[in-house]
Amino acid sequence: MDGITLLITGGFNSSIDRLSLTSSAGGITGTYNAATGLLRLRGAATASDYQAALRSVSYTQTTPTEGARTFVVVASKAIYLPSTGNLYEYITTPSSITWTDARAAANAATFGSSPGHLVTITSQAENDVAVIEIQGNTWIGASDAGVENTWVWTDGPETGQTFWTGRGTGTASGYQNWSAGEPNDYGTGEDYAHMFASSGLWNDYPDSLNVQGYLVEYEVDDIGSVASLVRLTIGIDTDGDGVTDGTEAAESTDENDPTSFKDTDGDGVPDAVEIADGTNPADGTSFLDTDHDGLSDYTEGTLGTNALSGDSDGDEVPDGTEVAEGSNPADPTSTLDSDGDGVPDYVETRDGGDPSDPTDAVDTDGDGLSDYAEGQLGTDPNDGDSDNDGALDGDEVDAGSDPLDSSSMPDTDGDGVPDPIEVVQGTDPSDARATSTPTVMASPTTSRRATAPVPTTTQVSVIPMVTALTTSRSSMAPIRVMPRASPIRMVMVCRMPSRCVMAPIRVMPRASPIRMATVRRMRSKVAMAPTPADPASFADADGDGCRTMSRSLMGARSE
User: Fold this and answer.
1) I need a labelling partner for 15 at 20 to 30 A (CA). Which of 100, 369, 460, 474 fits?
2) Residue 282 φ/ψ region, left for φ over 0, alpha for ψ in the -120 to 50 degree band, beta for the rest
3) What is the 3-state secondary structure (H, E, C) of 389-401?
4) Please, which residues bridge with residue 162 across strands?
């Protein structure tokens, strides 16, 4: 690992809030920016070193004050900006780099599944984040190479957008931060923009090797897949409802009942929490909803869903929609499916289907699994045999083998016909004809002699330990890197405003292992009427004594 960033995003008070690294391990350093509430841990070190370092991170206040804070923790050097929802990473190079090469490298970069590009800076907040870590002149994603004196953003959602026309005395049509007199197209021409490290101001420059690094902006659709949101209450909160006992006493609510709190607008968020978050406790539509899924961050904390991910369980249905429908937003198998076709009503409506018609689920590759089911499994909806092992994905699911693992093709009875195909044909996968000479088709065009049965394999994801934020003079549980759909919950218990103990933070990895979910077959199969109990029982469509193989191996009719 080379870094972790912690940002106070809710209830932040620059005058009193402080984060610090009280001791170091593995050469890791900590730098806190009091103006932004950002703590950066940096240094090439092992996960265990970062665990030790994070255990020594403390939150303190210069003036003890009750309230609440939220943090976003990213297990990376990339910095999160709430106003855009994106991540920003400074890349330094061993030597200088041209703008063209920097752009190519940025476009090739990814953060988990989030694509990168040279940063497009459309606000002061973005410029402030961009300048935090740069160590020298740094390329950004702006150029007037297409039309001289017409400066545009070259990549990302803003591709082609003009923000400046002319030279130093030109006209702005969007955010700009040119240094005085720039751009000036000096000398033989300067068609690309870079940022000065000392000031964050911009300058035009030729496509040359005199710039030391570049800034990548990652377009993050689901920040919850790569970060964790942590909420803490500062003060004694016996029932853990986010409202201190002192406030509950003043409001005449029950400090021992987590459902008892003052909620003027009836939005399910305590007034005290809304005040701390900076939202309006008298407006039922005004609450903190970081992932824009219709559920407040507070409500997500009580449900155990991910307040940074609009779809905590990855079933393509927003958490808020699932709650409204009465399904469980933390369970990918719990969705409203009126027609029983295995595709949630929300997904069918979104894609133009009829949630009351069980026959209209799309199965592009005809493998017996709907495109939705394939998305959940991680198989290819355009390839009926995702692992190229000769069996249709749907047949493998029916037989209990893994459609993503070509070695997961069990042949229990050793008759040369894999279990998934026997299940489709209606023969008994545990009973073989003694005189058969088995041949297993590894693909539609190649074959191999049968060997001992291949057991179905199970992939195990090893979850490395990272660490947890601790408060001053208090111990803290570790952060665990968890799969994407894991619920994130945080409870902060404070006996004194300056002495708090935080429960585990769970930091999401950049990529999560594929989740196998319950799916329904969309294709009906007609049995060939063999007798499963008969050892000579196998499918023989034309009566010539040779078993008929699945169409997925040899075509529509073959032996």
Assistant:
1) 474
2) alpha
3) CCCCHHHHHHHCC
4) 152
For the chain, the farthest-separated pair of C-alpha atoms sits apart, in whole angstroms, at 90
Joined tokens for residue 51: 């665990």
Give the residue among 382, 381, 401 at the shortest CA–CA distance from 391.
401
| DSSP single-letter state for residue 291 | T
* pTM, 2 dp: 0.61
Helix, strand, coil content of the chain in percent (nearest 5): 15, 20, 65
What is the per-residue DSSP string for 179-245?
PTT-----TT---EEEE-TTT--EEEE-SSS---EEEEEE--S-GGGTEEEEEEEES--TT-SSS-H
Distances (CA, A) of 400 to 217, 237, 255: 42, 48, 51
Name, in order, each residue with C-beta under 8 angstroms of 288's C-beta and a sequence gap of 6 or more: 10, 70, 269, 274, 277, 278, 279, 296, 297, 298
- Write phi, then psi, for 141 (nearest 5 degrees): -85, 55
Sign (positive/negative) of CA torsion 86, 87, 88, 94? negative
Rounded Cα gap, residues 416 and 31, in angstroms: 63
Name residues whose C-beta falls within 8 Å of residue 134's C-beta, 6 or more positions apart in sequence: 90, 195, 197, 213, 215
For the chain, give me the number of helices (H) and strands (E)? 12, 24
Q: What is the pLDDT along the chain (559 residues), one digit of tens a residue?
A: 899 999 998 889 999 999 999 987 789 999 999 999 999 999 999 989 988 888 888 999 999 888 888 899 998 999 999 889 899 999 999 889 999 999 999 999 999 889 999 999 999 999 999 999 898 999 999 999 999 999 999 999 999 999 999 999 999 999 999 999 999 999 889 999 999 998 999 999 999 988 999 999 999 887 877 888 788 888 888 988 889 898 999 999 999 999 999 999 999 999 988 888 778 999 999 888 888 888 998 898 888 888 888 888 889 999 999 999 999 999 998 999 999 988 999 999 998 889 999 888 888 998 888 899 898 888 999 999 998 888 888 888 887 888 998 877 777 788 777 776 777 677 887 777 633 333 333 333 332 223 333 333 333 232 232 333 333 333 333 333 333 333 333 333 333 333 333 333 333 333 333 333 333 333 333 333 333 344 444 445 455 454 444 333 333 333 4
Say if CB 186 and CB 168 are below 8 A apart. no
> How many C-alpha atoms does 414 have within 13 Å on its Cβ side?
6
Pairing of strands 110-111, 38-42: unpaired
Q: How far is CA 450 from the centre of its chain?
A: 42
Please name the helix (run of DSSP H) or strand (run of DSSP E) that holds residue 385, with its range, or none.
none
**What are residue 192's DSSP bridge partners?**
143, 205
